[in-house]
């Protein structure tokens, strides 16, 4: 038995992963802020398969309630079973897309809470539970090349991706003798998602790379989310085909 937690499960890659991870021995725990989309996804999946699916409508910007969310999720674990846990830290926001001088307090707080604070607490809670109960825990972080590349008007997104990467690297350092804990960050490439659409529609004058993303879309070079989900499932969920703690998925597609 394996519990697979997916944040940002109602859209894009998160939704695709929920549809791809369809094994009966895996319990899906889906977290997303859009309750309507989340419930619709759960209903669709329940009609298609015999798999336990738990849905938690939750906005990760509500940091003060993340602890309660995780306590409720952990209560769902059946301690009588020999189970594993996988967290796919997928939810994130790129907004606001604007230059540093135009950032507002509410936008800074929201972005960093969704991208750093809430994931950090979720990871901490799961590691504590796994260590106390001798359970195998995989953490798969959906990252981006932006974690090490400054991009104009993406100050918060770049910062948050870099911060969560360092958080995970410190976590690995602290648990270097713990064979039950596996951590990987993935750069899936530029995917055809709602986030990409919002990037193309951005009006920030400081976003100099906007035309690059428009060209990728026009030239049909955006990576299909279902193809990315299949690679993640086959190589990092069903298996652990890992080289290092940060991997770009380009090689998996170039080899096909």
Structure characteristics:
7 strands, single chain, NAD(P)-bd_dom_sf, sepiapterin reductase (NADP+) activity, SDR family NAD(P)-dependent oxidoreductase, Biopterin_syn/organic_redct, Rossmann fold
Task: Walk me through the structure.
The protein has 256 residues and is α/β, with parallel strands linked by helices. It has a single domain, classed as Rossmann fold. It has nine helices and seven strands, in the order βαβαβαβαβαβαααβα. Strands 3-2-1-4-5-6-7 form a seven-stranded parallel beta sheet, with helices on both faces. Strand 5, helix 5 and strand 6 form a beta-alpha-beta unit. The longest helix has 29 residues. The model has no long low-confidence stretch (mean pLDDT 94).
| Biggest sheet character | 7 strands, parallel
| CATH superfamily placement | NAD(P)-binding Rossmann-like Domain
Query: What is the fold named in CATH at topology level?
Result: Rossmann fold
Give the CA-CA distance, first to last residue: 31 Å
- Average predicted confidence as pLDDT: 94
CATH architectural group: 3-Layer(aba) Sandwich
Give the helix/strand class. alpha/beta
Morphology? globular
What would you report as the Rg, rounded to the nearest angstrom?
18 Å
Percentage of residues in strands: 15-25%
Helix/strand order, N-terminal first:
EHEHEHEHEHEHHHEH
With helices defined by DSSP (H or I, 4 residues minimum), what is the helix count? 9
Organism: Soehngenia longivitae
Protein name: SDR family NAD(P)-dependent oxidoreductase
Subcellular location: Cytoplasm
Main location: cytoplasm
